[in-house]
Amino acid sequence: MTAFNGRPVLVTGASGGIGGATVRHLVEAGADVIASGRSMDGLEDVVSQTGARALPFDLNSEDSISGALSGLDLWGVVNCGGFGGEIASPMETDIAVFDQVISINTRGALLVTKYASREMIRLGAGGSIVNVSSQASLAALHGHISYASSKAALDSITRVSALELGQYNIRVNSVNPTVVMTPMSAWYWGRPEIEGPFLDAMPLHRWATEDEIAAPIVFLLGDGASMISGASLPIDGGYTAR
Question: Would residue 188 show up in a list of annotated catalytic residues for this protein?
């Protein structure tokens, strides 16, 4: 297990399933975890269960992000906050929903990277950023025009940030998970006509668990991945390898 030795690591979307699992894994690995979400109420469970510090802010607001992160000592960041949007084709998509998906998944992650990296550079100790992207950025999925666009842009942010921040010994990578079957995702992915063909096409033939996403995130953050930067790592049971 990677030892973080008290390094401060920010996790956005910490009140969600993958974010919460990532907080738990990082705390177990010895990180000083700063858990972020939209509200203090939403963070109560993960903070009480793990001892992480709570830092709520709004991914839609540059002022909220800059206010929360300015002057904050950071070594690592996990950009896990996200919004699924809608299931729609390009012909049917609601542009207002598209704008909101981009605002949170892409713009929000970029703003966190903008202000967090300034503090990481200030400290001069290097660091690591992991962006939680999606298999939807690597393979075309029906109904995912907004979500896939936001995550493909996030992968580009990962690569350019890796290029720009490497001189400060800050690494930037993405993970690209498949579906974690939660009650929130089951309304779509749990439909037999959707789930069956999708899992038939996946070599491992099953959905991912939250822990199976969190563990690679922690690996990419840690020193065991010290020569990995600018990568997008599929965690998708082989789906995008087809």
Answer: no
